[in-house]
Write a structure and sequence with these properties.
Number of strands of chain B: 6
Radius of gyration of chain A: 17 Å
CATH architecture of the largest domain in chain A: 2-Layer Sandwich
Largest sheet of chain A: 6 strands, antiparallel
Number of domains of chain A: 2
Largest interface: A-B, 10 and 13 residues
Strand order of the largest sheet of chain A: 1-2-8-11-10-9
Order of helices and strands of chain A: EEEHEEEHEEHEEEH
Largest sheet of chain B: 4 strands, antiparallel
Number of strands of chain A: 11
Bound molecules: zinc ion
Structural class of chain B: mainly beta
CATH architecture of chain B: 2-Layer Sandwich
Number of helices of chain A: 4
Radius of gyration of chain B: 14 Å
Strand content of chain B: 35-45%
Number of helices of chain B: 1
CATH class of the largest domain in chain A: Alpha Beta
Strand order of the largest sheet of chain B: 3-4-5-6
Strand content of chain A: 25-35%
CATH superfamily of the largest domain in chain A: Probable tRNA modification gtpase trme, domain 1
Helix content of chain A: 10-25%
Order of helices and strands of chain B: EEEHEEE
Number of domains of chain B: 1
Oligomer: heterodimer
Chain lengths: 193, 82
């Protein structure tokens, strides 16, 4: 059987505003492992982080409490098998590699929240979504899973959605960033600016 | 817009949730009459007053919960996980 090569639905170099206050990049290759674990299982005790928050483990992976009894672990590209193998599966536990089923983007910078706020109804203030916050909600009409994952003290969000909506989501977010100076290449804008 | 309090996610825009309608009790299909089954499936009280209803947190925690909502004012009270 031949190896199937997975390709990003976006596949575009990072975009940046001229003042650097908002950047947008495809993060599709991020390893994504979904764990569902009932209360009392070893996996639930090990992951432990509660719904709505996240933590980085010793291996540097981002462990997110994505829903009640559900966690998503994000890691560097190519780490999916290693991460999945690290989760004990005794009891009522499922561990699924969702890397290729989910598109993902990272938006960073002091204008990131303002740009996102244009196309979602979540309150992205520091009070309600501080660094590490994990939440879900629609962005540009697409159901997304979010993590506020600041980079070197700069506001940053990792946002994932179903793969088939990935390109649309990327374009919708890029479009929302145009008024903050993001240069969007031809064909990637929503309204033909 | 209605702000609906999810027991897991907190206050959410109703657009991120799905209303699943009035809470109705399910009769036993083995013993109930056709009329009772039909009423369970299709008939609702729909008052302009307080109603106990189920909501599904579609965009958030993907759990069902019940609230009491005044259908005339959209005031909401009493929330619990289903
Ligand atoms: Zn919820």
């Amino acid at each position: 059987m031949s190896e199937i090569t997975m390709k990003s639905p976006v596949d575009l170099d990072p975009l940046s505003a001229s003042d650097g206050n908002v950047t947008l990049e495809d993060a599709y290759a991020t390893s994504k492992i979904q764990v569902r674990a009932g209360a009392g299982t070893i996996a639930a005790a090990l992951l432990s982080v509660s719904y709505g928050s996240s933590t980085r483990n010793d291996a540097g992976d981002l462990v997110c409490g994505s829903r009640p009894d559900e966690w998503t672990i994000y890691g560097d590209p190519g780490r999916a098998d290693t991460i999945a193998a690290s989760v004990p599966t005794e009891g009522f536990v499922t561990v699924i590699d969702i890397t290729h089923g989910r598109a993902m983007l990272r938006i960073s910078g002091s204008n990131a929240a303002s740009a996102l706020q244009k196309i979602c109804n979540l309150d992205l203030s520091d009070e309600l979504t501080p660094n590490g916050a994990v939440f879900s909600g629609s962005l540009g009409g697409v159901s997304c899973d979010w993590v506020r994952d600041d980079q070197s003290g700069e506001t940053s969000f990792l946002i994932s959605c179903e793969r088939s909506f990935g390109k649309f989501l990327f374009i919708a977010v890029a479009d929302a960033c145009i008024e903050f100076g993001l240069h969007v290449p031809a064909g990637w804008e929503l309204h033909g600016h | 817009m209605i702000v609906v309090p999810c027991p897991n996610c907190g206050p959410r825009n109703s657009g991120d949730l799905r209303p699943a309608g009035e809470v109705v009790s399910r009769p036993d299909p083995a013993t109930c009459s056709l009329r009772e089954w039909r009423e369970y499936l299709y008939m609702r009280h729909n008052p302009a007053d307080w109603v106990t209803e189920t909501w599904y947190c579609r965009g958030g925690c993907r759990r069902y919960f019940t609230i009491e909502r005044n259908t005339a004012t959209n005031e909401i009270r009493g929330q619990e996980a289903s």
